[in-house]
Amino acid sequence: MQTIAAIATPHAEGGIAVIRVSGENAVNIAEAVFSPVSGRSVTDMKGYTACYGEIHDGGIRLDDGVLLIYRAPHSYTGEDTAEISCHGGVYAAQRVLTACFNAGAAPAQAGEFTKRALLNGKISLTQAEAVADIIAAQNEQYLLCAGAQREGALYRRVRAAADSLLSLVTLIQAWIDYPDEMEDEFDGNLEANKLNGIVAELDSLIASHGEGQMLRNGIPCAIVGRPNVGKSTLMNLLTGTERSIVTDIEGTTRDIVEETVTLGGVMLRLADCAGIRETDDTVEHIGVERMIKKLGEATVVLAVFDLSRPLSEDDRRLMELITGKRVLCIANKSDLPELADVSELVQRFGKVIRISAKDENCARVIADAIAEISDLGSLDLSSGFIANERQRLCAVAARDFTAEAVEALNSGMTLDAVGIMCENALDKLYELSGEHVSDTVVDSVFRRFCVGK
Ligand SMILES: Nc1nc2c(ncn2[C@@H]2O[C@H](COP(=O)(O)OP(=O)(O)O)[C@@H](O)[C@H]2O)c(=O)[nH]1
Ligand SMILES: [Mg+2]
Q: Which residue spans within 152-248 are E strands per DSSP?
């Protein structure tokens, strides 16, 4: 395999840039472009050692920096690897990379270092995908879950299900081939029970996909209420921006304003919607329709009511609209004299959170309440979760084949047919874990990576 090189750090100005070289010739290429000030030879450097020196291309001195050597198989890729840290200029890093190319390295493709780690048996496909998730993580919870995934959490769960299926497939095959030599009668009920256990485990894995997506992208959260209750003020308070326009004119917010915020470790995708009211204004009417659509997509609804005015028919219409959703009832304008009948809200929602959206301290109260009702604060995906569509499709197919095998057993079909369905399920699990997977699938996974990773 060719020795590859790429800039591993972002292509922007920064303190340090790292140029990564991996492959059989990595140490020789490092020797060609790097001279330790100590006068030592780079080729004599042991793995996990670093030295300070000059970086050059032919006779031209380009920069000074640090060289770190890894010896196969003890590196990220499993190959000999050199990492050159130079000053973090866009041109400086590019120029050092060119020096590596001139010394014989080939440009790395997107994700090629991680792909090599996979091909060299350093990590499984799901672990490689977790590397991309760690890089994409924008909040604490997702980072920790992706980290567990990188340590093999999903891989272990999938392997356990695959091992159970494999022992069943082996047993079935033995029953087909050597029925006379088997000690026990084949017990269809017992095997169907085992298969049902696998279906349940796969169902729980498939469900983890939605939870993972929510952790990754944030909880969809719609702020709704009639005009002028303080929705946009609340939005601005939670996001710490002035994104939403606040006025005392009813119907100011017409389109949906969206913003992602992380509050108390929980990421929220907030949508500030048009106020709900009967209106003849065409634009405002469209805004209300959009609000109703957003409401459908929201996992959590922040329903805002104005404490300083009696509850109106529009408030009651909203209550009807959000029936059955996870609602946080927010009674705003607690700084003004209270004219709303709060007991009606209590009766409807149980808990009512009294706030003044003009008071910054209420952000934390709302964040905690959202974390509580969304269950996300307590969500623990560290035992593995389905992180992307590729994995989900494999898990769904494996689940369906396993359920079909149960059906086949229960309806008295031949063991051959049951065995084939179990094998199909097994193939899908091996595809999920990356043990049997086509080059096309592997290529499509790594295409999502950045160059240098
Ligand atoms: N006194 C008081 N006024 C508020 C409070 N929250 C919002 N307002 C005011 O209520 C009016 C409507 O606010 P806005 O956020 O635009 O309401 P929206 O139509 O629901 O988005 C503005 O004049 C705000 O300054 C609050 O907690 N107390
Ligand atoms: Mg508004």
A: 219-224
